[in-house]
Design brief:
Blueprint lengths: L2 E6 L10 H10 L4 E4 L8 H5 L5 E12 L2 E8 L6 H27 L6 H5 L8 H10 L10 H6 L13 E2 H10 L3 E4 L16 H12 L4 E5 L5 H13 L3 E4 L17 E2 L4 H5 L11 H12 L1
Parallel strand pairs: 1-2, 2-3, 3-5, 6-7, 7-8
Antiparallel strand pairs: 1-9, 3-4, 4-6
The chain binds zinc ion (2 copies).
One zinc ion binds next to loops.
Amino acid sequence: MGCFDLHIHSRHSDGRFTPEELGEKCKKAGLAGAALTDHDSVDGLEAFLANDGIITIPGVELTSQYRGRELHILGYCIDWRHPALRRALAQVVAARNERAREIVERLQKAGIALEWEEVAKGNGGFVGRVHIYRALIRKGIIGEDPEKAGFNHYLGPEGLAYVPHREFPTLEMIDLVKQVGGHPVLAHPGRIHPERVHPKQLDELHDLVEELCAAGLEGIEVFYPVHTQETVAALSALARKYKLFMTGGSDYHGWENEPGPGAATVERRYIEELLTDSLPERGEKQTKERTDSCDKGDKL
Ligand SMILES: [Zn+2]
Ligand SMILES: [Zn+2]
């Protein structure tokens, strides 16, 4: 049958492992295939796609904003070398880093001895709140933090150094994925407003999905570690209604206490569209890598 984990992060965003290490872990977990979906980065894809013995699918997870809320859009089978994608990602990362710098400045103003270099060291160009958080822990400013109280105190929306996101509009991101030949998918809807995925309270999610579909959304992430059975059932119904394909993945980052690769997966039958993709509409040269990596699925 074959299961696929279509949501994994490497150290090219906020994950712990290299794309090569992730390929090995996915194989050990017995997966038929996996997609690397770093936040706003495609830098790990070349190495990830070179993993053999497993079907590898190029992906990305784009941070975006929709009516004041943060939404993540997964893009699969993208032409990851496309200049339009590279340009957009460079802008996203610049905005992200600017935000991180402002957060560090606010911490410093609050009397916390934390240098930017300490935060940014060892990161592949991507600096987010999680890196600031880890730097605060390394410096002993935040101790054991099982309930995330330390995180919230400093970095949460009510925290003393919080700076709001300045993300790109969701519809633009969906458009970008389409523009570079990919399939846009709404990530982990159960995390947007968990209570609203309850079958009786799905109205808002319906409205959202309807609007995103009109903009070109093609899939929805149904299988995800925190999605309950009830959530999966509700999202499956939503997928049927809007003719979206279903995806799934672990959102593995490699940090302690996280479920490993394969903690949530999607069966092959749901993602044939991703694996076979539609050849005729592609340009020849620019989509070669994408064709190669996605078509590997046909042969296995
Ligand atoms: Zn996400
Ligand atoms: Zn993710």
